[in-house]
Amino acid sequence: MSGLFEDFDDIADLAEGLDDPVPGARIMAVIDLTDSADPAAIPHLARAIADEDAGVRKQAAQGLTDFDGPEVAAALVSALTDPDPAVVAAASVSLTELKDPTSGDAILPHLGDANEVKLTACLAGIKELRRPEAMTPAVAALKHAAPGVRAQAVGVIGWLQDETSLPALQEAAHDTDVNVRRTALAAMGFSQSEAAQSALIAALTDPEWIVREAAAETLAKSGGPSCIPALRGALADDYWQVRLKAVRSLGKLGATEAAMEIAPMMDLPVPNLRKECAAVLGELAVPATASYLKKYADDNDPDVRKNVRWALERMAA
Amino acid sequence: MPLAQTATTVPVTVNADLCIADKGCTVCVDVCPLDVLRIAETEDGSKTAYMKYDECWYCMPCEADCPTGAVTVNLPYLLK
Amino acid sequence: MDEILDGLTQIDCDILVIGGGTAGPMAALKAKKKNPKANVVLLDKANVKRSGAISMGMDGLNNSVIPGYATPEQYTKEITVANDGICDQAAVYRYAQECYGIIQELDDFGIRFQKDQNGEYDVKKVHHIGTYVLPMPNGDTVKKALYRQLRKARINIVNRYMATRLLTGEGRIAGAVCVNTRTAEFLVVRAKAVIMGLGAAGRLGLPTSGYLYGTYENASNSGEGYAMAYHAGAGLANLECYQINPLIKDYNGPACAYVAGPMGGYTANAQGERFIECDYWSGQMMQEFYDELQGGKGPVYLKLNHLAEETISEIERVLHIVERPTRGHFHKGRGTDYRKQMIEMHISEIGFCSGHSASGVFVDEHARTTIPGLYAAGDMANVPHNYMLGAFTNGAFAGLDAADFIADVDFAAFDEAEVEAERTRVLAPTKRDDGIPPNQIEYKTRRLVNDYLQPPKVTAKMELAQERFEEVREDMEQGMYVRDSHELMRALEASSILDCADMAASASLYRTESRWGLYHNRVEYDRDDENWFCHTILTKGDDGKPAHRKQEVKPYIVEIAEDEKDAYNNQRVGASVAAE
């Protein structure tokens, strides 16, 4: 029965549709080429991304999401200066979907571009490709006037997980923009260096709670014994989400000296916090906290009960 | 016994000026999980997509995948 | 299009996968990869590009078991407890061991999971000691990525064909009868193995809006998988354990405790007080929800208006962009804003869906049903609480096992008369000059489901339901009328829905105890571990009606301590805490 199965058409035949004088027909050709999932379609889609009709260009920019490699990246970068914002937006999204590190070859030369939109998209695109060559231009982009560019640059640096970038991240942790500060602190999670730790501790007193939260959370990964006093201080933060992250990090760091400060927090009405405290008291396994835990063995929240039970088992063991 | 002709307002609307069904586009018809869209031929011979069956899960692929932004999914009146 | 044509084609394939949503594509890919020479056909009544429960996307994995965050033992324990102990652990445990490999494979497909600022997986702690929730920032591209893989693997895709009955012979699977939803032409597929991934029975109860398609599940998931398995003689497990969910009222989409809970959102009563501590969906939680509504303390709300602006924006970003994008439109239309008001919630219609409960076609840890060569995975198979990642992972198990199964067998011979009988059944509504349209058959069935089957379950009401269903069945078989092939698809769906309604009533009457909170709250009976700590298996009896038997729960792989078994009971907030 003809037409029963989805077709696997010849790419050259599908590409002929790109020469149709009617834009709508060319859009359909782009869709068919995309659905082929055949890398042979890439050059044709790269041609379509320079079509005279904006609708065709946008469809091609979207369609290239389904492909990868330097040729795809080059076509998408070229679309970042398209006069139509919809085309630029589509190309920007597609750039972030690239996975093949060699795709970065086509992006690297543009990491100093003067066009803010293009630069932001290129930084976002190179991030997950983890190309070490991106480090220098990303550090330079931390000086950019636009916070959006700076946030993307911090992202690139964080994914590279390179100790030499710490001074740059430290500086970014004092950025005027909240989002850049928060991202920079989270990006330090790969490092247990003193530089990272001191920046994270300093940020525990940031005026914005989401920055303090990021710092408290990241200390679970970056922190060491010297960070425990600062985290104990954060147990009194006036925002519960910061307190919760501080409790969790103290647990991860094995801060048994904080156990007697965490135990009374079991009495707080925020259930998420009670759950976390019970779990962390289990991790710390300080016998003196058992009496606090036992009080909540019949807590109304089944997750608190479970965590309490688990914590008491750990102490017994 | 003939069936009744009860009117119903449908949630999916198509902007005929943007729709390129004329050019062979059937993207919205193809992607609808409930298969409720069809292509209509208007009096002047041009074609446009429309919602033929009032059986919509308001899930959005028709709107999201339309290459020209011609399709709008509203919530069905009974639940909006 | 939609004209009724006369036609019948027969094709052969090694493996027929029915359902192109989540489990099906993964099954097809795995089978093809294991045996590249196998002819694998993937069939869907919609279009594989956008079919199934994740049509538009999914905001995250609710049950990822990632080394360092949770262990297979922990997970298996949680799921066993969440199911009141009625759980064959082997399938759950194997899932827990292998799902991380599937996550990595999905990552390679281009489906992005949330990573931290160093590019490592970012797993959110939600409700347990273990940590299972992995957000998917580009979850809207799941279907696209899957489709791309299917095309690359050159899987034979058949769209817009609806399987209506399975064919069996020689004591095993032989193929399926299918009908084109736009032409009514028949397709008979002979297959050595068949994998079913047809999703939930989402059009069983009627939503309170009264709109037939305003369901919680994708409305195209109308229960064909359950009906076909039943008619083929497969066993179905624990169908009395319904799916019932707490949803945004009228919109009927999830309130998403998984997203809002860890950020401090919760379910509250009319006074804005928390009355359940744990928003994790369970039968006990739904019972408390029901009691609050019945006890005059409702309506029940999703409360977010005490949270910080940053937190609310983040919740909105996740909830309104990925899984059900129209949710944002809904709130806009109502003028509701999480910052200002609490959002009214309600109890969903009933359905079958193992994604959130434990009922479905009985399968083992290889996704094998009780019929050799027939597999089931995803929402329709009885691996409990398996969600999207379970559909992918169990679909993979099905594909892998089927690839082995076909190596040793040829096509099973089947009775040609079965095909002819099925053609007659399917086409009957096209042969009449007038009659009852399928939407009325469906509406009446589902309205009766609401009236008589929605828990709490009362014996006399369920028996009345059975009488009414008999009458509707008579009307359907003798008087249903369709005008085109699209309506014929709806007629076939109405038939599946009625089959599921019959099974729901019958299974609920069989288990004479209460279990799983509201899901199987039989008001005349208490919980009875002595007699009912077992699976119930429903099959098609010799009289053509549901038959039942008990089946023992297999010995646990991961032991559950006596005092852990009640973990999901006692969900109500005590007075002292509620007052704060």
TrEMBL record, chain B:
Protein name as annotated: Ferredoxin
Gene3D superfamilies: 3.30.70.20
Superkingdom to which the source organism belongs: Bacteria
Record key words, sorted: Iron, Iron-sulfur, Metal-binding
Matching InterPro entries: 4Fe4S_Fe-S-bd, 4Fe4S_Fe_S_CS
Organism whose genome encodes this protein: Mameliella alba
Molecular-function GO term, any one: metal ion binding
